[in-house]
Amino acid sequence: MMQLKSSIFLLNLDFVQKHCTLPKLLMSIRSFLLFFVFLAPGINGALGQKIKIVLGPSKIGANEIYTITLTAQDQALDDYSNFPNIPGFSKAGTSSSSSMRSMNGQVTNEASIIQNYMPEKEGTFKLPPFSMKVNSNTVKSPGATIVVGPPVDKQANDPFGANPFAYDPFEDFYKKGRDLPEGKADAMFSIQADKTDIWAGEGVNIIISFLVSDENQADLMFYDIGNQLASIVKKIKPQNCWEENFGIEEINARKVKVGKKNYTEYRIYQATLFPLVAKSFTIPSLKLNMLKSKGSASFFGAPAGEEIKPFYSKPVTITVKDLPDHPLKGNVSVGVYSIEEKLLKKRVNINEGVAFEMGIKGEGNISYIQSPLTTKSEMLDMYPPNTQQTIQRAGGRVTGQKTFSYLLVPKEKGNFQVRNAIYWVYFNSKSGQYDTLFPTSVIRVVEGKSASAGASAKAEDSFYAWIEKADPSEIDLVARKNNSLFWINIAMAVMAAITLVVSFLRR
């Protein structure tokens, strides 16, 4: 079959000169171009399926969050339109997540933006069908009917939990009202950090907001906010610093209480910064220009008779402490982590492959999590792991999990503790000490057929068997991508060949 496809390019120039006139050749080119025009939408449709909209559950409690999630595979969400408004709900900010999967050298990435909605009352509400413009593509959603019932009892939250909005450290901050600039015209520009004393590698959450008092009488409007924000962000980020941006694309109003006073907060930037070196830094007092109008106007309007009014934030100093001495200092993750493990089969034969997953879950710089340390053992052969990573940026925290999937091949009879071969060292930012996470899984190795390590890698419980049992949709997605790229290359090659023939005939 491949030989037949390749023969397209073997054009006989003498045959073309003798039997093809220029008009006929041009008609052939026209037919080919029409074919490609009709083929291209199908190719684009297959690729466009990598972007999707996922709606939240149809029933929630009055104290729960409803979500609309925009997800893109193997491409960044660089440009997307606003999420829709839902009658009976108020927008409660956005969060983002990303995941990466490396399987046998092939890497798949997925990025998501989650718009959160807080119900205003109980009842049944209609989310009409809507569409969003994403990276020059249009993605549609059929809408939904959402039933908001009575508040539900919330159990104790997982520290790196499924509901990242269960706690926001800035809620406590605003209640205390400390270190906030005094507002002129009953408004203030605020740059705040959730903590001012951290370890090198630990995250500090930075929020930039403009707050307007409920008692404010002046008409204030944002002015050139995009350029102003870009300049401000450059001044707050130190060198040698990893940034996890929360991706605020739409400025929404949010009610907060500062001391005993009610304010409306307009959050314009949020990110967690991870300084990679022990060097303290100061965010200086920065300026945000607003438009102040003499006449009445909406907050985002711009009527005549306005003047530029500057607002200044207070400086913030972040002390970054060096990690204690340790043989692995500079090569360990910093944060608060726990371990999740999964052994596919606890009882195996000698030289039979068994899959083992070790997940590092917690709060910190998930992207910087290093592979677990391994120890060579005469009782076990081990193959390099595949990895999968998920990051959530929400509720003022960066949480997630990085999973390492190993193929283990025991070579001797007996009980083998996985902790003797795999473990992970990190620095606990909460306790201020280094810690080691050990898996607890035990492999029971019994008598069985003797085989080489290479043959055992294709055993029933190996990763090769996993691949055979993989989700057909994932395999189909890769196949469609490769098929689309093949036909695009074929089309471009044929067009180039025809161009050369036409050029020759005209000489």
Can you summarize this structure?
This protein is α+β, with helices and mostly antiparallel strands. The chain is built from eight helices and 30 strands.
* CA(first)-CA(last) distance: 36 Å
Q: List the domain count as a whole number.
A: 3
Number of helices: 8
Mean pLDDT: 77
Rg result:
29 Å
Please provide the count of β strands.
Answer: 30
How is the biggest beta sheet arranged?
Answer: 11 strands, mixed
Form type: globular
Determine the structural class based on helices, strands and strand pairing: alpha+beta
Query: Approximately what portion of the residues adopt beta-strand conformation?
Result: 35-45%
* Helix content estimate: 10-25%
Which regions are unreliable across 5 or more consecutive residues at pLDDT < 50?
1-48, 155-167, 450-482
What this model shows, in words?
- The protein is α+β, with helices and mostly antiparallel strands.
- The protein has three domains: about 1-50 and about 470-505; about 55-320, no CATH class; about 335-470, Sandwich (Immunoglobulin-like).
- The chain contains eight helices and 30 strands.
- The strands form seven sheets. Strands 1, 3, 4, 5, 21, 23, 24, 25, 26, 28 and 29 form an eleven-stranded mixed β-sheet that branches. Strands 10, 12, 14, 15 and 16 form a five-stranded antiparallel β-sheet that branches. Strands 2-9-6 form a three-stranded mixed β-sheet, with no helix packed on it.
- α3 (about 20-50) runs antiparallel to α8.
- The two termini are about 35 Å apart.
- The model is unreliable at about 1-50, about 155-165 and about 450-480 (pLDDT under 50).
